[in-house]
Design brief:
Elements: H1 2-28, E1 47-49, E2 55-57, H2 61-88, E3 93-99, H3 103-111, E4 126-132, E5 135-141, E6 156-162, H4 166-184, E7 190-196, E8 219-223, E9 234-237, H5 254-258, E10 263-270, H6 276-287, E11 293-298, H7 307-318, E12 320-325, H8 334-341, E13 345-349, H9 366-370, E14 376-378, H10 384-393, H11 396-430
Length: about 425
């Protein structure tokens, strides 16, 4: 019996020792494993691997997730704002203007009112840039602007040419053929031409280049009252001032506008044999009103002005209430626009000159008449003495108010021309209505 009890005691002691050793092993030598089943965590919390195969609970995870959601909402709102701005930002289109005739300067400086750099008029290369409507215009002019040396950043080009005489026409054709090559190479796809047409409206040479006749020119802006003008693809363009003689963009002072002018009228120009200009001079002499007008005439036309003659001419415009505008080869002349620039009312000989320039009762000068030009129109210079007599009876206030109306009209005319030019290009080139 005693032996049996001893044996049981030894077994108990041995079991205790084995359990103790197993417990010690688990405490000091075994890797701890955390049960996923019995751990209690907050809903939405994340278990983080610490890089040793163990996972840890992140007690700040919920705050971090809320902050992340706020940032994401802000990013989404900013992207939405950027998309809205991009969608509503006015789209701009590029058009290059190559000025290879002097009337290009009237288009750029007087109509579009664009800058030119460098300012020196004798520079070989001049350029500028301006925004009008949805079009960003860039302009290049000068003797150094030659075929193949203008860097194109658009496929839309406006070419300004001179077609008044055969030598100018030959030069213009060279440029048209150059642009035609660019069209065929798919470098240029839209083309417009601003053309100083022939004074008798004989412009058949450009007809084959027009798209309506199988050519590549989409639009034609043509000087003088041509029968071609239809306001669809051919539009009438104003002659403007004589930029080839460096007539400036005039900035008038208030004193120049309001101060009484010493002369009733002026005429500085060439007197041609058997012309209405001879009639004009005869009427002034016979009526004794020659002394009321600033007159300086010559028998031979000079293509260029000297500094002195240019200053003398501009001074005559600035000091006269009226500027006499007899017809030349065409009724429309630079003098009309130059008088407007100085607020001197043009007295226009309203007769049709020989040639193919006529469109019903509106011609001549239909572009100016349709715009409501506040000129004095006469059919015969023998009407001039009565006009000058009325001028003598006007008081300074009446003349100042009339001068202001003329200047406002001319400013509005140029703005309307700018808007029309821009709108026509927007619609024809870019389908903007």
């Amino acid at each position: 019996m005693r032996f049996f009890r001893r044996k049981i005691a030894i077994i108990v002691v041995l079991a205790y020792v084995i359990f103790s050793m197993y417990a010690a092993y688990n405490v000091f030598f075994s890797k701890r494993v955390i049960s996923r089943v019995h751990r209690v965590v907050k809903k939405g919390s994340v278990i983080i691997d610490n890089g040793k195969g163990e996972e840890e609970w992140n007690p700040w995870e919920e705050d971090e997730r809320a902050h992340s959601l706020v940032l994401q909402k802000r990013r989404d709102a900013f992207r939405s704002y950027q998309d809205h701005v991009a969608k509503n930002r006015p789209k701009t289109y590029k058009v290059q203007i190559w000025g290879k005739a002097a009337i290009g300067l009237y288009l750029w400086e007087h109509i579009l009112e664009g800058p030119l750099n460098p300012a020196d008029k004798s520079s070989q290369w001049r350029e500028g840039e301006i925004q009008s409507g949805k079009i960003n215009f860039s302009f290049f002019t000068g003797p150094a602007v030659v075929q193949g040396h203008v860097s194109l950043d658009t496929d839309s080009v406006v070419l300004v040419l001179n077609g008044r005489e055969q030598q100018k026409i030959s030069y213009s054709i060279q440029w048209l053929q150059h642009v035609q090559g660019l069209v065929q190479a798919h470098t240029v796809s839209r083309v417009a031409v601003v053309l100083l047409g022939n004074e008798r409206c004989n412009n058949d040479w450009i007809s084959p280049y027009l798209k309506r006749h199988g050519g590549f020119v989409d639009l034609l802006f043509l000087v003088y009252d041509s029968l071609w003008v239809n306001d669809k693809d051919i539009f009438q363009w104003p002659l403007g001032v004589a930029t080839y003689r460096h007539f400036p963009v005039v900035t008038l002072s208030g004193q120049m506008v309001k101060t009484a002018r010493p002369y009733l009228c002026n005429f500085l120009g060439t007197i041609y044999k058997n012309s209405s200009r001879e009639t004009l001079m005869g009427v002034l002499k016979q009526s004794g009103m020659e002394k009321d007008c600033l007159m300086h005439v010559r028998e031979k036309w000079l293509p260029q002005e000297t500094v002195d003659t240019s200053r003398q001419y501009q001074m005559a415009l600035a000091q006269s209430d009226l500027t006499l505008c007899p017809v030349g080869v065409n009724t429309e002349c630079y003098r009309i626009y130059e008088a407007c620039a100085y607020g001197s009312v043009p007295v226009v000989e309203d007769v049709l000159t020989p040639g193919a320039c006529a469109v019903g009762n509106r011609s001549p000068l239909r572009l100016l008449k349709d715009a409501g030009a506040p000129f004095i129109f006469l059919k015969d210079w023998r009407e001039l003495p009565a006009i000058l007599e009325r001028e003598r009876g006007m008081n300074p206030k009446e003349k100042t108010e009339r001068r202001m109306r003329l200047l406002e009209w001319y400013s509005g005319f140029r703005q309307q021309t700018k808007d029309k030019f821009t709108e026509v290009l927007e619609e024809a080139f870019f389908n903007i209505t």
